[in-house]
Amino acid sequence: MLDLPPLARFGDRVATGLLDVTSDPAALDSSGFWAVCADYEGRLTCARFRDVRKEPVPAPVPGRWQGPAAGDWTSSLDRAAYTAGVRRIRELIATGEVYQVNLCRVLSAPIAPDADMDALTAVLARGNPAPYAGTIRLPEHGVEIATASPELFLRRDGGVVDSGPIKGTGRTEADLLEKDYAENVMIVDLVRNDLGRVCVTGSVTVPDLCAVEKHPGLVHLVSTVRGELRPDAGWPELLAATFPAGSITGAPKSSALRIIDALETAPRGPYCGGIGWVDADRRVGQLAVGIRTFWIDRTTTDQAVLRFGAGAGITWGSDPEREWYETELKAARLLAVASGEFQDRGAA
Description:
Blueprint: E1 7-10, E2 13-22, E3 33-38, E4 44-54, E5 74-75, H1 79-94, E6 100-110, H2 117-127, E7 132-138, E8 143-149, E9 152-157, E10 160-164, E11 166-170, H3 178-196, E12 205-215, E13 218-228, H4 235-242, E14 250-251, H5 253-263, E15 274-279, E16 284-289, E17 293-297, E18 305-314, H6 320-338
Antiparallel strand pairs: 1-2, 1-7, 2-4, 3-4, 3-15, 5-6, 6-14, 6-18, 7-8, 8-17, 9-10, 9-16, 10-13, 11-13, 12-13, 15-16, 17-18
Helix pairs in contact: 1-6, 2-6
């Protein structure tokens, strides 16, 4: 592992000079600039940095990022297991136990022990730019992440909170089905309910419903849910009410979480968690849903492993093969970028 200093990078905002690290969400309502990583399983890492400056993401330096070989990626669920999981979820929908479940798989490949996620950030910024891109490099605390997330989990500006759930994915807008729109509306209702637990009664609104957004290589349906936080609610209450995000769990959330635990064979880690920053002095912050996210795992073997997650929302209208294809679509471009195999042919 390279002896590199702690760093956080979000867009053109770079934070250095690590001051302290905590797992207490109340710190986000104290003071200073914090980088935040919340694993799907609940582990929270909040790192306060002394120095924050504006600096564009540097261009990739040839040879600085050495990704895994394209053929080295393996999946926690293969095609047969994933499609069987989709069929099982449809059975549970038929019995009324759940309406929608996000079924995910984790892809893994060995990586050089001196791999630096900030170098991957530069490669991702060129090959797969994203509105909520970010990097957190805290190797001594087990956090090495580079995300190209397109999805807003929580944006807070004083007492106003926004969430931007994504549901519905296709290569083009013509690929989107009625099932995709229904799934989006279902998750919007869930997010409204989550925010309603900590927002002023009657303040939760949906300014945008099922807007089509273009991202590199695909399109998404994106909605916006907004509310006004109650005066007695801060980051601890907000995270407790909304985490994990509705778009990567399902509805009802409690049933979806149980089904996910039964069907998925690998921990999601920072994938499907929350990744971003909080400026406690200005009472603003922005967390992305940790999708399109790479992380280095140094805990399971002597070999450092690069991991990446992909999933799809399963409803009664889901076709197992189509859902598998959706996970392939979401992963293909990012894995190619990380493995040095991507050639931009002008995909939108």
